[in-house]
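Appendix B, example 12.
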Amino acid sequence: MTSTKKDPILVVVQLTGGSDYMNMVVPYADPLYYDNRPTVGIPAEDVLPINDQFGFNPNLGAFKNLYDQGEVAVINGVGYPNPNRSHFRAMDIWHTCEPEKIAMEGWLGRVIRDIDPHGENVLTGVNFGRGLPRALALTGVPVASVAVLEGYGVLTGIQGEEQRARALDVFERMYSPAIGTGAAMDYLGRTGLDALKGADILKTAADSYSSTVEYASTGISQSLRGMAQVIFKGLGTRVLYTSQGGYDTHANQVPVQTPLLSDLSAGIEDFFTDLKEHDAADNVMMLVFTEFGRRVKDNGSGSDHGSGGGCYIIGQPVNGGMYGEYPSLKEVDQLDGDLHFNLDYRSVYSTIVEKWMDLDAKSTVGGNYEHLSFV
């Protein structure tokens, strides 16, 4: 009998800059929240209630709708020992699963390696955005990085099929001799050839796409639209990644955060509506994360770098609800003015890798961590 089981797909959305967890999932019933946040606090009457204690930011209407359908897991109090408030170091820690030392291998690079150990599909991992996030970086693991899907390719500016074919032949011969001449050159050579192999294949995803969903023109919506196109094309892509920047809200937090969260929420709603319209939602899970939360007290205009944040798991396969304990706002329970984490982020990764992607989590996160029941 032919199997109809679909391969699980993971979509990762990074909120760059340190999104304010306390203003995404608002502890509106706790007077300490308003004592500490006279400027940036979300009024209780505006919150979208999750229960009688917590609620979503009013700009996260789609989160609330999906949560009410049982398709959002809110993971509270996520962090790691000895938190780091540097954007770059904190993001590296999330990307590499190494809080105690500098590392180069990305956790999702390891996931892609374990899915496709021989690198047979250069499109197993696809990033929408400029550059390559460290989470996806691993020597020998090909990952396509796309700014805009339409028009993506190698040497696409050359007019005429024959001229471009000759140029691509030169491109291929330029990279091929590098293979086997040393680790660095081998990496560069394979990267070039992988880009060549994947580029025109990936472009076809846009050519055959049709949908009634009208995504916004924002960066996050267009990236999610591109992801939907790749998923529908059936290219064997299993890991997709993108980011939304602007969350470093030291000043003017409310006017800055409002459109960011609105854009994020709208993009995610359109993405999952699109998946459902194409009967493609049952094997897609999304992780939304940020490098750290913000300080408990606002600074009079915004909020400064903190710790003890949250992350969000979204999709039809998710067992929705609140997971982990929301950290105490009492000063005695804080960590130098920050929320105190109570759940290691590697537990979230481990759960996704082992229970969703059906891989050995220890190979990815470097140890054994508690599994949560959102899968």
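Residues 128 and 146 are 5 Å apart (CA to CA). The longest strand covers residues 72-79.
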